[in-house]
Amino acid sequence: MSAFFFCFAAWSAIALGMDRHHEDALGRETATPRLAQLRRVGWLLLALSLWLAARPHSGTPSSLGLTAWTIALSVAAVAVTAVMTWQPRRAPTLAGAALLAGLAAWAAGW
Questions:
Q1: Rounded distance, CA 71 to CA 68, Å?
Q2: Contact 94/28 with Cβ under 8 angstroms?
């Protein structure tokens, strides 16, 4: 579960790191270094979600975790695409909520 939330937050950060999506979501332009920073944060969150999914825990093999991560990655990408298409102003709020939910799920062992 934490992998999905981290993937959603990561894809959101990567999308918000693009000029057009950032302007659609926030209604203003931002400097290029800030956009690059958002994209880097997104890729780091994706790496974190991969690490969390791939590490063997509670008897679950890594291959099953990687399969679940691939599914979470795909579903989160579709969800972020839908948000950026139909409700771009809600994207930053949903990304923050997903990040907090991911941290809570990670702490709970999900």
A1: 5
A2: no
